[in-house]
Amino acid sequence: MRLDKLLAELTGMTRSKAREVIQGGRVCVDGEVKTVIAEQVNEDTVCVTLDGQALVFHKYVYYMLNKPAGTVSATQDRSDKTVVGLLSEADRKRRNLFPVGRLDKDTEGLLLITDDGALSHRMLSPKSHVDKLYFAKLAREITEEDIALFASGMRVDGELTALPAALRKLTPEEAEEFLPDGGVAAAVTLQEGKFHQVKRMFAATGNEVLYLKRMAVGGVRLDRSLSPGAYRELTKEEVSCLMADAGMPEGEMKSDVDK
Ligand code: URA
User: Which of 18, 30, 169, 218 could form an SS bridge with 4, CB 3.0 to 4.6 Å?
Assistant: First the structure.
């Protein structure tokens, strides 16, 4: 890989900034200052430093986005704003990023965005059964019968039979944060992610979802400091947690390849 491209990948800086930094003599490869921007380097073996700081090569990137309503879970769309379009231009251009699964256009909350196809495939595999926690604003209170029905695995409609799902009321603290203006709400944890599943499950109990937000995927919770439309990279611990949730063996963990 060209040195300027590698530096841009390692740091997130633009290619032109990377060239400026290399020409300024601030970059070392295996201990030697390099000023030729087009120099070919082996990204799998070299140790690159910038101003004396070793840079870590991230083979894949993982972001959590707080998806706002009105955006579609896609990389491109003719008429609607996409979730990938919410990322900065520099982040978008660096990688072939895509959302891990889909949330409806009007659903908000945690959406993972990555370029790691293997992890995405495992997360979405029906065999993985990765838990997804949603908070739903509802038209009416849930009942003990609803909770039992969700827990037993239910026939939702002609096309959908749902695996057992955990339904509960929100704690007072959760309710205060989720619906500060009041209203009826519940938390539901699904092991799967079929089309409009939460809305269809509530509809099957004669209820209606008025607003839906995904709060967690596996052991990764939506960062409360992210306002709708904001995103951040997952921490190393969060990536490890997702890998474990998706049943990826340690050997397949490719998130951080420290040089
Ligand atoms: N279930 C739904 O009904 N909608 C979503 O966006 C996600 C789960």
Answer: 18
* Residue ranges lining ligand 1, Cβ < 6 Å: 103-104, 107, 196-199, 212
Task: State the Cα–Cα distance between residues 70 and 49, nearest whole angstrom.
Answer: 42
Residue 194 and residue 132 in contact, taking contact as beta carbons nearer than 8 Å: no
Q: Give the global pTM.
A: 0.81
- CA-wise closest residue to 65 among 100, 29, 40, 93: 100
Residue 249 has what pLDDT?
63
Burial 83-103 (b: 16+ CB within 10 A, else e): bbebbeeebeebbebbbbbbb
Q: Which atom of ligand 1 is nearest to the CA of 196?
A: 3
Amino acid (one-letter) located at 53: Q
Residue ranges in the chain whose pLDDT is less than 70: 249-259
Catalytic option among 104, 115, 131, 223: 104
For residue 233, the cross-strand partners are 63
The residue among 67, 70, 65, 134 whose CA lies nearest residue 106 is 70
Cα 257 to chain centroid, rounded: 20
Site to substitute for ligand 1 among 67, 106, 133, 134, most atoms within 8 A of C-beta:
134
115 labelled catalytic? no
Q: Are 193 and 154 in contact (CB under 8 A)?
A: no
Structure-token match 């959760």, residue found = 174
Residue 104 CA: nearest ligand 1 atom is 6
